[in-house]
Design brief:
alpha/beta, Rossmann fold, five-stranded parallel beta sheet, two-stranded antiparallel ribbon, 9 helices, 7 strands, about 50% helix
Amino acid sequence: MDRIDLLIASLAEQAEARRRDRAGVTEPQIERAVSRMQAAGYWPATGAGETYRALATWLATVAAGQATRGLLLWGGPGRGKTYFLGKFCRADRTIRASQIVELYQEWGRSRVLAWLEADELDDVPADYYRLTLDDLGAEPTGKRYGETTEILADVIDQRYREWQRRGWAGATFVSTNLTPEEVADRYGERTSSRLAEMTAAIHIDGPDWRMA
């Protein structure tokens, strides 16, 4: 199976997973999610009604206690990906991909991964193990002592194991300007496949909000 076939198969799997995710969510529940989004100032962009409904449906599954996976929002800059994650995805920590690279260059791989996985609280809040990873793909390749590495591939692998262990309690929320194929090109098919399994991927289309 070549790269295009793998990409098509991955997208088909994501579509089926989204269908399963919204099973049992009613129209009134989706409408309540729409009202919540609009109350927070997140309105549909021109021509992006289908995307807006997909986001509302995902939110409805969360409110109904049916969510099992995190969220991956991909699309061009200025489409509201980071805004949505900040408003509607409860996670104890939000970290930019570029920050992880900076820490890797200062600390090294083992310390960065240990820092991300640290659990030093006596009373752990419900959303402590969730993580928002912002702007995946905008970071430079990590360089340390003459060696280069895609530290974000290691981070995603760690987050995948966290999700396998904890389910929704260990969900990861990701924003990226990269297409699914570009994610696979940069981080490898294994990383791309794990992202597809542990998140519901939604393409955020429509015009650039910053240019409106």
